[in-house]
Give the backbone structure.
Amino acid sequence: MVENQEILIDKYITYLKIEKGYSQNTFYAYYKDLKFFLNYLQQENKNFFSITSLSVQEFLSSLTALNLSAKTRARFYSSIKGFYKFLYRNSEINEFPFKDIEYPFVRRKLPEFLTKDEINKMLGVKFKNNFEGIRNNAFIELLYASGLRISEIASVKLENFNFEINFVKVIGKGSKERIVPFNTSAAKYIKEYLKEREKIERGIGNYLFVTKKGRPITRQGLWKIIKKIAVKSGIDKNITPHTIRHTFATHLLEGGADLRSIQQMLGHSNISTTEIYTHTDITHLKEQHLKYHPRNIKEEK
């Protein structure tokens, strides 16, 4: 019985991978959630075919007892509900156990971003004038210039760049291809880095950012570079690659870019995901109003 259930998990993961085009990180997270759920059912002497709406609610309650975050619990809910939709559509089960369950919406946090002074401090960090130093400066310039996800930058290749018009072609979530512009400053740093890159031994593939041995840098490696730059810049914030992505979008919006263009550059499939930046911009506008409106200034005196 257990083997049959694991086969169903494998079928679902294959469906997510091939038909839905989910990234490896996404379908692996779903796989881990479903294995965890299967283990829970075994301990309760249940299986995928015997659960009811009550069984699902009991499982979700057990996640709360484990002190898991609301975001993690919501992901479990989404993973398992998607799996049961798949089973129901393929006639593996007769009843859909989620039809009477509504899970609380997880309130989306406003994205953290850097001010223009802070990002300029990071861009101003200079490393030694060697391969790694020149590469690190090119990386942070491209990250802020394009707003790419860290996984997209890790996988981008030389042939994806067009330096005549400063565009890069990337494959984002759901294996969706998009074209993203970058500025002349980033182009300048990348070209300087490419001169150094030509001097090292050839590695596997034609990836843009590589180690001194020519191997592609992992997402974790790029994450460490961001942490190193953050420390050198002296900014007292928890800065991640996604912070720079949020900064890119927020500064574009503050500068007058329209939301639809920002959506396309970020690779958001739904504009509601991009709309969260409007809340950040409203906060900025309020701060500017309080600081510069004559009536506010008079009241402070």
User: Anything to note?
Assistant: The CA atoms of residues 127 and 133 lie 5 Å apart.
